[in-house]
Amino acid sequence: MDLAYQKLTSDSEPALRKSLEWITLEGTYAMVFSVLTGGAFLTGFALLLGANDFEIGLLGAIPFLAQIAQLASAYLVDLTGKRKSITISSLIIARQTWWLLLPLPLIGGEWRLGVLLAIIIISNIAVMMGTASWMSWLADLVPDRIRGRYFGFRSAIIALSTITATLLGGAILDYFKYSNRAGYGFAIIIGIGCIFGIIAVMQMRKLPEKPLAQNESKAYWIYMLEPLRNKNFKHLIRIFLVWNFGLGISAAFFSAHMLTNLKMSFTQISLYVSAASIAAVLLNKPWGRLVDRFGSKPILVLCALGIAFVPMIWWIPRPGHIWILAFEAVYSGALWTGFNLAAFNIPIANSPRNSRTTYLAIFSVISGMGFFIASIMGGILAQNWKEIHWPLGVQTVVNYHLLFAISSILRILAAFMMFRFHEPREKDLPSVIQYMGDSLSKRFSSGRQLFLRISGISG
Predict the structure, then answer these.
(1) Taking the model in full, what pTM does it have?
(2) Which among 126, 158, 295, 315 is least buried, having the fewest CB atoms inside 10 angstroms?
(3) For the chain, what is the domain count?
């Protein structure tokens, strides 16, 4: 790992290399917590406790409603400048409250689902309190000149952590499920997640605090409205509001569809997630270089256009015929890798340093509200359409298929809105596509020449 950091930084920056190493380790351990307490595992846990489609949608909506807490966090950061203490204390609460859920799968009672929802609300509010300060702190810890490459490298390492945690969680759950002790499996993976959550915070504690100017004199409402006076940044918020609405209408139901309609085991779901993560491992570094070379916008647009059609692929699989998901995992994993890098960088790059915490908080809260509203709507629609079973050739169309179609249409709309956003010194999309094509052509040509040489030697 040390050699990788030396490529990103000069020999005169040992402190920076050490900080980057700690940031990567923090993300790696934190991802284990996120994987074991989210996604298909959280959906399966909720279904075990008796959740219906509306409640599954509500689970997907809670994190985005909780983003309102970022406004309070941003205000505290600008008032005190203490990003490190706000981040660490918030994330300890967010990750350690999950210990309270361990007994739930081992006891009975309809009240358990209410407790699950309450803990998730508390945890997500704390997460968002920490996120606003962490994003601002992180932006100052990682220099602009290496941001794309570094986060590409970090994301690749985190993807390896995702694969490991996903396969481990799936194996544990299936083992206990097949022995009719599914509750024990969920208790174990939640406990493991909490342990890794505290280890992640321990890595974060090693990072240096970067001084931040305090803004005590600003009136609260003036301070919060500042990002909305920036015309370009306001358009960026509008784009992600529509994009997140398109995601939220269906996001909570992919896992539910795999578990209830496609009859997939947790191991199969884990293999699906791992395939997407392997694509991320292989492509994070190239995407990071493209972001550094061409800027975030063209990468964002390119990936968004491809991602827009992903929900329609989910019309193809049916029980016993899920082969298409192998392709979908790699395809979407590759595109989401580039999209997430660009989407992470673009609000940072387009916000002023001294007001960055506020800008990022406003961006997350408003764009996140699109996901929240859409997820609630998706839950209501899924519950109202639960009786739908329309024959379509060899497929049977169910409520989730309709949500996937709506999601695809909204994603396409948001992707085209991205063309109207402009960054300083941005490159156009055709330049990126041409560069990618030339790079692939050179690699293919080099590989072909190597093959011919080897064949010649063999002959």
Answers:
(1) 0.79
(2) 315
(3) 1
For 1, other C-beta atoms within 10 Å of its C-beta total 11
Q: Which residues of 433-452 are buried (b: 16+ CB within 10 A; e: fewer)?
A: eeeeeeeeeeeeeeeeeeee
**For residues 305 and 250, is the Cβ–Cβ distance under 8 A?**
no
d(CA 394, CA 318): 9
Parallel, antiparallel, or unpaired: how do β-strands 395-397 and 390-392 relate?
antiparallel
Tokens of 217: 């004199």
pLDDT in tens, 177-229: 888 888 999 999 999 999 999 999 999 999 988 766 555 545 556 667 788 88
Determine phi and psi for 319, rounding to 5 degrees.
Answer: -55, 125
Domain extent at residue 400: 10-208+220-436
- pLDDT, tens digit, 9 for 90 and up, residues 118-150: 999 999 999 989 888 888 888 888 887 787 788
**CA nearest to 383, candidates 54, 57, 58, 60:** 54
Query: Is 447 part of a structural domain of the chain?
Result: no
The sign of the torsion formed by the CA atoms of 449, 454, 456, 459 equals negative
CA–CA distance, 360 with 135 (Å, rounded to integer): 8
> Is pLDDT at 11 greater than 50 in this prediction?
no
Given a cut of 70, whether residue 336 has pLDDT beyond it is: yes
Distance CA 286, CA 299 (A): 11
pLDDT of the residue at 440: 66
Quote the CA–CA distance of 113 and 227 in Å, as a whole number.
Answer: 38
CATH at 43: 1.20.1250.20
How far apart CA 101 and CA 120 sit, in angstroms, is 10
CA distance 334 to 312: 17
Q: Is residue 245 part of a domain?
A: yes
Q: Mapping DSSP to helix (H, G, I), strand (E, B) and coil, where does residue 206 land?
A: coil
Q: Whole-angstrom Cα distance, residue 154 to residue 282? A: 12
Under 8 Å between Cβ of 240 and 418: no
Task: Judge whether 387 lies within some domain.
Answer: yes
